[in-house]
Design goal:
about 20% strand; alpha/beta; two-stranded antiparallel sheet
Length: about 160
């Protein structure tokens, strides 16, 4: 792997306000700066596009807005524009910790045969206060292929 591998973030989006601001801020706050963001928008009508067109402070962002058949097609379209050696996803109601990308690069350097990497999830309230921490389970290929490795939403 390159000394500073390029990280590509696929960012599917449709009407992501008001959470979009925090998601983008979490990208801008990354300490590891060799990344690109591939935004695939499904024709938002809530100001998301206008907000993204004004974003500064990201190393690189491509933005395409067109009709799609949902998040799967949006992810595939965004992925087709990625150039990175490491690829991740971000949804509009998600945020990365500031050192997330640096930690990902370090983990792949320490485990060069690793193909997939995922971590814990910190749930927060609508006001941004911590709610609970979800610690990921041990990796199981079948569960991963069935998308059962995702965190369960917090209960009330």
């Amino acid at each position: 792997m390159a000394a500073e591998p390029l990280i590509s973030i696929v960012f599917p989006l449709k009407n992501g306000m008001p959470y979009l601001r925090d998601a983008v801020a979490s990208l801008a706050a990354q300490t590891y700066r060799n990344f690109e963001v591939s935004v695939q928008d499904g024709e938002s009508t809530d100001g998301s596009l206008e907000f993204l067109q004004m974003v500064r402070g990201l190393p690189s962002m491509s933005l395409v807005s067109e009709p799609d058949l949902g998040i799967g097609q949006a992810c595939n379209r965004g992925l087709s524009r990625c150039r990175g050696q490491i690829i991740g996803t971000l949804c509009t109601d998600d945020m990365f910790e500031p050192h997330a990308f640096a930690e990902v690069v370090r983990a792949f350097e320490q485990h060069p045969r690793c193909a997939v990497l995922f971590g814990s999830v910190r749930f927060i309230t609508a006001a941004g206060h911590p709610r609970r921490l979800y610690i990921t389970r041990a990796f199981e290929l079948v569960r991963f292929m069935q998308c059962e490795w995702l965190a369960d939403p917090p209960t009330a």
